[in-house]
Write a structure and sequence with these properties.
- Chain B: Pfam families: CCG.
- The complex is a heterotrimer of chains A (about 190), B (about 250) and C (about 450).
- Chain A has helices spanning about 1-15, 30-45, 60-70, 120, 125-130, 145-155, and strands spanning about 50, 80, 100-105, 105-110, 115-120, 135-140, 145, 160-165, 170, 180, 185-190.
- By secondary structure, chain A is of the alpha/beta class.
- In chain A, strands 1-11-6-3-2 form a five-stranded parallel sheet, covered by helices on one side. In chain A, strands 7-4-5-8 form a four-stranded mixed sheet.
- With about 250 residues, chain B is α/β, with parallel strands linked by helices.
- Chain B has helices at about 10-15, 15-30, 45, 55-65, 75-85, 95-100, 105-115, 135-140, 155-160, 185, 190-205, 215-230, 235-240; strands at about 1-5, 30-35, 70-75, 105, 125-130, 165, 210, 235.
- The longest helix of chain B has 17 residues, at about 190-205.
- Chain B is globular, with a radius of gyration of 17 Å.
- Chain C has helices spanning about 5-10, 15-35, 40-60, 60-75, 85-95, 110-115, 115-120, 130-140, 155-165, 175-195, 220-225, 245-255, 285-290, 305-310, 315-320, 330-340, 355-360, 365-380, 385-400, 400-415, 430, 445-450, and strands spanning about 75-80, 100-105, 125-130, 195-200, 205, 210-215, 230-235, 240, 265-270, 275-285.
- In chain C, helix 3 (about 40-60) packs across helix 12 (about 245-255) and helix 9 (about 155-165) crosses helix 10.
- The chains are: A alpha/beta (about 190), B alpha/beta (about 250), C alpha/beta (about 450).
- Chains in contact: A-C, B-C.
- At the A-C interface, helix 1, helix 6, strand 8 and strand 9 of A face helix 2, helix 3, helix 4, helix 8 and helix 10 of C.
- Strand 8 (about 160-165) of chain A pairs antiparallel with strand 9 of chain C.
Chain lengths: ~190, ~250, ~450
C-alpha cells in the first residue's frame, strides 16, 4: 500500500530521465612502487602499523609466528583465518575478548589504505570488530590505486557481507581529539607481502 | 567606447568618493562615460529579503536607462552579480538581456574588457583584501578557497599593478564578513561577530588598509572598527587603483 | 527576533566558547581542503557525483523497485514507510515479533527525523545510540548539533562530568582517551546484550539490493553482527544505480566530511548472517513531494557529509541547535522548509548567501541559490513579518521614484547631517548596537556629478 503510494508520487514528480555520467575518466595507471608507497603512507596515517616483507624469502607462516610472539607477547586467544584446521565458527566473542584477529585481505586500495574482507574470509562477521587487535596481510600485487578500480575487482554482493577496513577503529567525538580504539579493534597491523 | 556608470545607491549616498574614483578610472582608460541620473538601486535589498517580485519595476527601469551604453560598469560585484543572476524573473526584453550581459564590475571590466596591463597608481601601504562573496563565488574575481581548480584572481592582478603595495596574506583568505544586506540587522549578533573576526584576522596580519570591491562589506567592517576604536583604515579598491592617497 | 537569531544571540554571548566552536569546525574545513587538494580530479568527481544523483532522482521509482527485488532475492525483508509514524510502526512491529527489548542503534539522521527513540522509549524499549558522539548527546537528552560530529558543541570537561554521573568514571577526569575507553566498555556489553540493531544507510545499491554504511568506530558493525535482527532505515533518495558508482561517492564522502581519505570501515550488507534476520525500511516522509519542486529537488542529492556546516560562517558562530531542526546548517535550512514552511521560515534568512556551502558540497547542491529561492517562497506565502515587509515596501517605492530618492538623500544630509533612513531599512537601532554608521558626506555622488561633470 505504502509502496504503491510512494512510487506513484515519485513517478508523477520525477524530472525527465538524465543519463549516467562516464566513469572511465577516473581510470589511470599508477606505477606499482608508487602505489605501495601511497598505500603505506595512508595506512600509517590511519594509525596502522605497516610492515613490508615483500622482498623477504622467509615463508609467511614462519614470519608470522615470530612476529606475533614478538609483538603480541601477551596474546593467548586468536581468531586465525589463515589456519584452516580450526573451526572459527565456534569462537565465542561475547564472553571474553579475543586477543588477535589474523586474515589476508582480498584487495587493498592505495588511496585510502582500505583492505577488503568478505564472508568467505571472515567466517564470523563480528570477528574483525570484536578482536582487540587485528593483523591484516595484503599481497602487494593486489593493491589498486583508487576505489574506482577496487569496485571493478570485487563483488560487493558476492558473499552477503563485505567490508573495507582502513585501520584500527577510531573516534574524535570528544573535542575532536583523535582516540584510537573506539568500538572495534584498538590496534591494526598490516603486513605487505 | 561608450560606458554607462552605475553607482549603487549606498555608494551614491554614503561613499561618493568611490563613484568618483570609478568614473576617473574609466575616463583615464579612454572610456566615454555617461551617468544616467535617474538611476537608484539594483533591487537587491528587497530581493535578498524574499521580495524580488516587488523589484520588477526597478529592474526594468534600470535596464531602460542603460540600453544605449555598450557597457555598464559599477564599483560593486554584489550589484553586478544581482543583475546577472537574478534579473531572470522579469520578461527578458532586449533591454534586460543587454543589461544582464553587458554589466561589469570595475575590476572585472579593467581586466577582461579593457585588458589593462599597467596602472598609474602608487599605494605604499600594507593592504588586506577582503574578497567579497558575490564577487568571489558568484563571479570568480578571485579563487574561492573551497574550489580545487585554477582560477586566476582578477583582484590580485590589478592590485599588483599598483606601485609600492604590500598585499597581506590572511589566516582565512575568503571568509564572509557578515554583512549580507538585511542579515546585518536581522541576525545582528552573528553578523557583528563575523565582522569582528574578519577585522581580527586583518589586524593579526598587520594590515594597514583594508580594501574590497564591495563597499557594503566595508561599511559594515568600518562600522565595527570605529566602534572598537581600532583596526585598519577602510578604502574601496577603486580608490587604490585610481591612485587616490590616504 | 526570529528563532534562529534569538538562539544565535544567546550562543554568542559566551564569546570564548563561540571562538572555540568556530575554530574546531574551521579546522575540519581545513582538513577537507587539504584532502581534496591531493586529488587533481576533485572537481570532476563532484560534478560526476552530482550527475549520478541527477540520474537517480530522474529514475528513482525504477531504482527502488529494482532495489527491493534484488534485496528480496538475498533474503532481506523490505518495508515501505510513507511517513515518520509509518516508519516507527514498522520498526515497532519487527521488534515486537522478536520480543526485542534492548536495541542498539548506530548514527542515523533519518531515525532522528522520525523521532524513533521517543517512540521506542514510550514502549519501554531500551534504545542505545552507539556512536560515541551520539551516546554523549543521548545521555544529555539533546539532539545532535551536527550530522557527522553530533557532540561538537560539548567540551571534554562536560563529557567528563556526564560520564562520571552516568557511567561512573572518575570525577574530574576529562581525558578523551580515558572517557572513550569507558564508553567502549559500557557499549561492549550493550552490543552483546542487544536483541536488535538499527542503523541508518549511507548508500543503497539498486543493482545488488544491498546497503552501505560508513563509520570510523565500527559501531554499526558491532551492532549488526551481534544482534539476531538487523534493521536498516533508508531514505528513498539514498540509492545509487550500481556498485561502480560507490567508487565516486566513497571517495568524496569522508574527504568532504572530515578530510579522511575514507572512513575506517565501509561495510556492504547484502544478506543476513546465518540464523539472523535483515530488514530494510525504505522511508519517504515527504521526499517524493520534495522531488516535484524543480527549484528545490537538488537538495535530495545530499549525502549528509556535513561539509556545508563546517564551512558555514554562521553555523560555526551560532551552533547546530540554533537551527531548531533535525538537520542543521545550510543544508538543513533548505531541507526543513519542505517539511514546514511556517516553522522554519527563519532558516533561509540565517545566511549571508556567501556561497561557501555550495562550493564545498560534494554533490554540488546549489545551497545558497536555494536559500535565496526559499526566501521568495516565504514572502509569497505571507510568512515574512510585517516589520520587515513594510519598510522594504517603502524602500521599493522610493527606489522606483528617482526624484523622491534624490531629494530624500539630500534633505537628510543637508538638514540633519544624517544618513537617509530608508537606506538602512529603518533599523538604525539594531545596526548601531555594536556598529557605527558611516559619516554622512557633504554631498552624494549625484550632486558631485552634477557640479563637476554636467555641462
Amino acid at each position: 500500500m505504502s509502496k504503491s503510494a510512494i512510487l506513484e508520487i515519485i513517478k508523477r514528480n520525477k524530472p525527465e530521465l538524465v543519463a549516467l555520467p562516464d566513469l572511465s575518466v577516473f581510470q589511470h595507471d599508477v606505477p606499482r612502487e608508487e602505489l605501495i608507497k601511497d598505500f603505506i603512507s595512508v595506512s600509517t596515517g590511519n594509525m596502522s602499523n605497516v610492515v613490508s616483507i615483500i622482498d623477504s624469502e622467509v615463508p609467511l607462516q614462519t614470519y608470522l609466528k615470530e612476529f606475533i610472539s614478538e609483538n603480541y607477547p601477551l596474546a593467548t586467544t586468536f581468531y586465525d583465518t589463515l589456519n584452516s584446521e580450526k573451526d572459527s565458527s565456534e569462537v565465542d566473542f561475547t564472553q571474553k575478548p579475543i586477543d588477535l584477529f589474523i586474515a589476508e585481505a582480498k584487495l587493498g586500495v592505495a588511496e585510502n589504505g582500505g583492505l577488503w574482507f568478505d564472508d568467505s574470509i571472515l567466517k564470523q562477521r563480528i570477528s574483525t570488530f570484536a578482536c582487540e587487535h587485528t593483523l591484516m596481510i595484503i599481497n602487494h600485487k593486489k593493491i589498486v590505486p583508487t576505489m574506482h578500480q577496487a569496485y571493478q575487482k570485487i563483488s560487493i554482493s558476492g558473499t552477503g557481507y563485505g567490508v573495507f577496513i582502513a585501520g584500527p577503529s577510531k573516534t574524535a567525538d570528544i573535542e575532536q581529539s583523535l582516540v584510537v580504539g573506539a568500538q572495534g579493534a584498538v590496534s591494526n597491523t598490516v603486513i605487505l607481502i | 567606447m561608450k560606458v554607462g556608470l552605475f553607482v549603487p545607491c549606498y555608494i551614491d549616498q554614503f561613499f561618493p568618493e568611490v563613484g568618483i574614483a570609478t568614473l576617473q578610472l574609466l575616463e583615464k582608460h579612454d572610456c566615454q562615460v555617461i551617468f544616467p541620473e535617474k538611476q537608484t538601486c539594483c533591487g537587491q535589498p528587497m530581493a535578498n529579503s524574499g521580495m524580488e517580485q516587488e523589484g520588477k519595476k526597478i529592474y526594468n527601469d534600470l535596464a531602460g536607462l542603460f540600453y544605449n551604453c555598450q557597457y555598464i560598469v559599477a564599483p560593486s560585484p554584489s550589484c553586478v552579480h544581482h543583475i546577472r543572476s537574478h534579473y531572470d524573473i522579469v520578461k527578458q526584453t532586449e533591454e534586460i538581456i543587454h543589461l544582464r550581459k553587458q554589466t561589469f564590475d570595475i575590476v572585472e571590466f579593467l581586466v577582461d574588457i579593457l585588458k589593462i596591463d599597467h596602472l598609474e597608481a602608487s599605494f605604499p601601504h600594507r593592504v588586506g583584501l577582503h574578497q567579497s562573496c558575490h564577487g568571489l563565488r558568484g563571479m570568480y574575481l578571485g579563487k574561492p578557497s573551497e574550489l580545487m581548480n585554477d582560477i586566476p584572481s582578477k583582484w590580485d592582478k590589478v592590485l599588483k599593478m599598483v606601485d609600492g603595495i604590500d598585499l597581506a596574506m590572511l589566516n582565512r583568505a575568503d571568509e564572509c564578513c557578515g554583512f549580507g544586506g538585511t542579515f546585518a540587522v536581522a541576525e545582528e549578533a552573528v553578523s557583528v561577530k563575523m565582522g569582528k573576526d574578519r577585522l581580527a584576522d586583518h589586524n593579526q596580519n598587520n594590515v594597514e588598509v583594508l580594501t574590497s570591491g564591495d563597499m557594503s562589506c566595508l561599511m559594515h567592517l568600518q562600522g565595527i572598527a570605529k566602534r572598537q576604536k581600532s583596526g585598519p583604515k577602510i578604502v574601496h579598491i577603486a580608490n587604490i587603483l585610481n591612485g587616490d592617497q590616504l | 527576533m526570529s528563532q534562529h537569531s534569538k538562539r544565535a544571540d544567546s550562543f554568542i554571548k559566551d564569546e570564548a566558547r563561540t571562538d572555540w566552536h568556530d575554530k574546531a569546525l574551521w579546522h575540519v574545513r581545513e582538513k577537507r581542503d587539504a584532502s581534496a587538494e591531493q586529488l587533481p580530479e576533485w572537481e570532476l568527481l563532484r560534478e560526476t557525483a552530482s550527475q549520478v544523483k541527477d540520474n537517480v532522482l530522474s529514475n528513482l521509482d525504477n531504482y527502488l523497485i529494482q532495489f527491493e527485488a534484488e534485496a528480496k532475492k538475498n533474503g532481506v525483508i523490505v518495508h515501505w514507510a510513507e511517513d515518520a509514524a509509518d516508519h516507527n510502526q514498522i520498526i515497532g512491529k519487527i521488534l515486537e515479533k522478536h520480543n526485542a527489548r534492548k536495541i542498539v542503534k548506530s548514527k542515523s539522521m533519518l531515525t532522528e527525523e522520525c523521532k524513533l527513540n521517543d517512540f521506542l522509549e514510550e514502549k519501554d524499549i531500551e534504545i542505545i545510540d552507539t556512536d560515541l558522539g551520539e551516546r554523549i548527546i543521548q545521555l544529555r537528552k539533546e539532539p545532535p548539533s551536527h550530522v557527522v560530529l553530533p557532540a561538537i558543541h560539548i567540551k571534554k570537561e562536560e563529557v567528563g562530568e556526564l560520564f562520571h554521573q552516568k557511567l561512573g568514571t572518575e570525577k574530574g577526569n576529562s581525558d578523551p582517551t580515558y572517557l572513550t575507553k569507558a564508553a567502549r566498555t559500557h557499549l561492549r556489553n550493550k552490543f552483546f546484550e542487544a536483541d536488535a540493531a538499527i542503523t541508518g544507510v549511507n548508500f543503497g545499491i539498486a543493482e545488488t539490493g544491498g546497503v552501505v554504511i560508513c563509520t570510523n568506530e565500527g559501531n554499526a558493525d558491532m551492532g549488526c553482527h551481534s544482534a539476531p535482527v538487523q534493521i536498516h532505515c533508508m531514505g528513498i533518495e539514498k540509492l545509487l544505480p550500481q556498485a561502480e558508482h560507490l567508487g565516486v561517492f566513497i571517495r568524496l564522502l569522508a574527504r568532504s566530511a572530515t578530510g579522511q581519505p575514507s572512513t575506517i570501515y565501509t561495510s556492504h550488507y547484502h544478506k543476513p548472517r546465518p540464523g539472523a534476520e535483515m530488514h530494510v525500511v525504505i522511508v519517504d516522509n515527504g521526499r517524493s513531494i520534495h522531488l516535484g519542486k524543480e527549484d528545490f529537488r537538488n537538495s535530495l542529492k545530499c549525502i549528509r557529509c556535513g561539509a556545508c556546516m563546517n564551512t558555514c560562517p554562521i553555523y560555526r558562530r551560532s551552533g547546530g541547535h540554533s537551527y531548531h531542526s533535525t538537520i542543521p546548517g545550510p543544508i538543513g535550512a533548505i531541507l526543513s522548509p519542505n517539511k514546514n514552511l511556517k516553522e522554519y521560515s527563519d532558516l533561509p534568512f540565517a545566511s549571508t548567501l556567501c556561497g561557501s556551502c555550495s562550493n564545498v558540497c560534494p554533490v554540488k547542491i546549489d545551497i545558497h541559490e536555494q536559500l535565496y529561492k526559499w526566501r521568495q517562497e516565504i514572502y509569497k506565502n505571507n510568512q515574512l513579518p510585517k516589520s520587515k515587509t513594510i519598510p522594504l515596501k517603502i524602500t521599493t517605492r522610493i527606489f522606483e521614484n528617482p526624484s523622491v530618492y534624490n531629494s530624500l538623500g539630500k534633505i537628510a544630509r543637508g538638514s540633519l547631517r544624517n544618513l537617509p533612513g530608508f537606506m538602512i531599512y529603518n533599523n538604525f537601532n539594531t545596526w548601531g548596537k555594536q556598529r557605527d554608521l558611516p559619516d554622512a558626506p557633504k554631498e552624494g555622488f549625484k550632486q558631485w556629478y552634477k557640479k563637476n561633470r554636467n555641462e
